[in-house]
Amino acid sequence: MPNMRMDKNPMPSQAPEVRITNVDEVTLGYTPEMAIDEAKRCLGCKHKPCMQGCPVNIHIPDFVARVAEGDFEGAYEIISLTSSLPAICGRVCPQETQCEERCVRGIKGEPVAIGRLERFVADYMREKGEAKLAAPERNGHKVAIVGAGPAGLTAAGDLAKLGYQVTVFEALHTPGGVLMYGIPEFRLPKSIVQHEIQKLRDLGVEIVTDYVVGRSGTIDELVDDGYEAIFVGSGAGLPNFMNMPGEELKGVYSANEFLTRFNLMKAYREDSDTPIQHPTKTIVVGGGNVAMDAARCAKRLGSEVHIVYRRSLEELPARKEEVEHAMEEGIIFDLLNNPVAVHSDENGSVKAVECIQMELGEPDDSGRRRPIAKEGSNFMMDADCMIMAIGTSPNPLIRHTTEGLETNRKGCLIVDDNEMTTRDGVFAGGDAVTGAATVISAMGAGKKAAAAMDQYIQKKVRTA
Ligand code: FAD
Ligand code: SF4
Ligand code: SF4
Questions:
Q1: Given 21, 70, 213, 274, which residue has the most CB atoms within 10 angstroms?
Q2: 251 Rama sector, left if φ>0, alpha if ψ -120 to 50, beta otherwise
Q3: Ligand 3 centroid to 105 CA: how many Å?
Q4: Strand 238-239 relative to strand 392-393, pairing
Q5: Measured distance CA(130)–CA(414) in Å, rounded
Q6: Distance of CA 58 to the CA centre of its chain
Q7: Is the pTM for the entire model greater than 0.85?
Q8: What tens digit of pLDDT does each residue of 353-409 get?
Q9: Distance CA 172, CA 234 (A)
Q10: How far apart are CA 186 and CA 92, in angstroms?
Q11: Of 155, 161, 148, 272, nearest to 213 (Cα)?
Q12: Ligand 2 centroid to residue 177 C-alpha, Å
């Protein structure tokens, strides 16, 4: 008999007043008993609506049924058929708009906690010491991957399993992309990301770090070096600014820079070589997940933090859970406001941010009500730090240094149905193609591209 309780088993978490004093993971994960109890809420629907909401089609009813039986290894095997990063997706996927949105238990009550169960299974196997996958026999062909984010790493893993000699070229000194430099430790522990990357190395994937494609070498040089197909998963890491007066002042950061200093360079630690300001009052501009992450990091540096967003709570694009966590941690939401200028003190540092009040008009192209400035409503907010989290775009470096790569007006690489770009043999996926999106959509693109690259090379072999 299924468990017909209406609500999900709550997630054990650190108390807000404790967690703002550390960078440890906020949510602590289910115990085996909690996981089994939650899994019993699943009705095992024959038409599997939840699966249709998962971009990589995890066999959700089957893995959840194994959890309900206490067969966690069996559950892990099922998840691993389609997903290579379950400990990560179980933590950061926007489940509420994907698998869980389609769950029938959500019609009257809360959906089955699919993400929490996926995380539980992956954590259980990692802690138990899952068996190492042996490096497969090589098929004699070599491929290159540009960028070690979720798109590139997924493509690398799938191609290595097919026997390819895979080399990943990564610009930063550590692989992982946004998983390492963007999403904070308290949401996604870095040891988990590195564990997943070690599994790829065990499969024989070579990862070359500090290698910027377009500067250290070009796509053409990779082709000349004998790489038979190339996947570009270089993300969308170029920050957008508002071009308002004072954005160049000391104390104004892009969210990417601030988060990189905090996460990758561990600037919150006293022994870190990377300087970071310890602000007293921070204004974060934006309302997405990136804004929530930046705000919560600034809070952990001891700052009072305000989120300034031009629409209302209803339109906030960040995940509901992240907004709730930010509110619990004492972050102040100054909604229906927009900055117009940053003012300086005598040293050229931020002293105040001038804002204007907004009201909502008719819906715009995005379907959300258009924010309109209220004339004459300008006001000052004291602050010594401002973080801009209003979106990012793909960096144009690769496009500018590669013949034949076309992009759309937003600078995103154009690909066909097989993820091949306008340059023969060069594939692409993830944020470099879609603009800033999600981990699971980047993984889905990496998977699709890996299959297409395999077909492309095998076809060449057959026709040679
Ligand atoms: P990335 O993760 O950006 O990886 C691209 C990699 O390519 C990077 O390592 C970069 O250094 C490297 N690179 C770039 N140019 C070059 C070059 N020329 N040569 C070599 N290497 C290069 N998504 C969610 O699903 N849930 C969340 O909770 C979530 N939170 C987020 C929080 C933050 C702060 C940010 C910034 C994003 C968040 N996202 C979230 C979005 C998600 O992380 C991205 O959609 C995803 O990481 C995209 O994967 P990717 O592999 O395409 O690119
Ligand atoms: Fe849901 Fe994401 Fe897991 Fe798919 S990968 S089942 S969307 S949490
Ligand atoms: Fe289980 Fe919900 Fe999927 Fe039905 S829709 S099989 S209840 S997870």
A1: 213
A2: left
A3: 7
A4: antiparallel
A5: 39
A6: 19
A7: yes
A8: 999 999 999 988 878 889 999 999 999 999 999 999 999 999 999 999 999 999 999
A9: 11
A10: 11
A11: 148
A12: 20
